Amino acid sequence: MAKQGKSSATNKFGMREMQEKAYQARDAKYLLLKAPPASGKSRALMFIALDKLVNQGLKKVIVGVPEKSIGGSFAKTDLKTFGFFANWEPNDMYNLCTPGSDGSSSKVQAFKNFMVNDEKILICTHATLRFAVEQLDESVFNNTLIAIDEFHHVSASEDSRLGELLRSIMQKSSAHIVAMTGSYFRGDSTPVLMPEDEAKFTKVTYNYFEQLNGYKHLKSLGIGYHFYQGKYTTAILEVLDTDKKTILHIPNVNSGESTKDKHSEVDFIIDAIGEVQKGFYNRSYFCKTKTDGKIIKVADLVNDNQKEEIN
């Protein structure tokens, strides 16, 4: 590996390599950003969104995330200290990634209030975005940037309400779209966008090799493939090595591999690793492994409503 440090180095505006590449396409009305996890997509969106607000004449920015916990990635961020011309400063009142139903009347009303007041930035879940958009005319989104994080959750299927609403907004308003994803594959046969819609997007791709070659301390990387029959939850235990730092991406609930209950899948995997130890935690467990009894930390990024203590 080149280990050049480029992917983590910053330019005079405080942008990492991927963020600078995305920012160069900031004038695009429809932008599709494909980049690996931890490459800085959230901050890339902040740079682009602020430019659209300050320099391109847009009035509002709406950020849609798949789960409440991810809303924290778009919290207030100091960008000026590192050379950018503005800070990312959403009003906490319009961060709707808070406890409570995503389709509640209070969240939908807050969304509606945002569209007619002077606030600039709103952060909400995909579900809240969908519920709110269903009650609004598309023209409301004129001069608005809609940013969709984890864009592969959208689909071209007529059964995907978010996908349908997004296409309607593109057709009937002047809204700008920034779509962000680490993986443009859904795990099923349904495309994310129809070809005629995808052709409207300017694409910025930053691949895993660019990201990994920029690390200074990663000595080597091995990628293996394993084939299985039956449920993946059983097969995964044959290759999971608790001596190595590992990220498990469970299948999308719409894929054929999914059991359709992602929380049960996580519970199954944690039970298979070992015994959960008592203690305080924040979306993470301490587990005593079944193999050799060592204690390892396991973070659960699927369940964003966990209690503060395991009893």
Characterise this structure.
The chain is an alpha/beta fold and 311 residues long. It has 2 domains: 17-213, P-loop containing nucleotide triphosphate hydrolases (Rossmann fold, 3-Layer(aba) Sandwich), CATH 3.40.50.300; 232-310, no CATH class. Helix content is 25%, strand content 16%. The chain contains 9 helices and 11 strands. The protein has helices at residues 17-23, 41-54, 105-116, 126-133, 161-172, 195-198, 208-213, 232-235, 262-273; strands at residues 30-34, 60-65, 121-125, 144-148, 176-181, 202-205, 274-276, 279-280, 284-289, 295-299, 309-310. Strands 3-2-4-5-1-6 form a 6-stranded parallel sheet, sandwiched between helices. Strand 4, helix 5 and strand 5 (176-181) form a beta-alpha-beta unit. Residues 306-311 have low confidence and may be disordered.
Give the count of structural domains.
2
Shape: globular
Oligomer: single chain
Class computed from helices, strands and strand pairing = alpha/beta
Radius of gyration: 21 Å
Helix and strand topology:
Blueprint: H1 17-23, E1 30-34, H2 41-54, E2 60-65, H3 105-116, E3 121-125, H4 126-133, E4 144-148, H5 161-172, E5 176-181, H6 195-198, E6 202-205, H7 208-213, H8 232-235, H9 262-273, E7 274-276, E8 279-280, E9 284-289, E10 295-299, E11 309-310
Parallel strand pairs: 1-5, 1-6, 2-3, 2-4, 4-5
Antiparallel strand pairs: 7-9, 8-11, 9-10
Helix pairs in contact: 1-2, 3-4
Give a concise summary.
Helices cover 25% and strands 16% of the residues.
Question: How would you describe this structure in keywords?
Answer:
alpha/beta, 11 strands, six-stranded parallel β-sheet, 9 helices, disordered C terminus, 2 domains, 16% strand, Rossmann fold, three-stranded antiparallel β-sheet, 25% helix, 311 residues, single chain
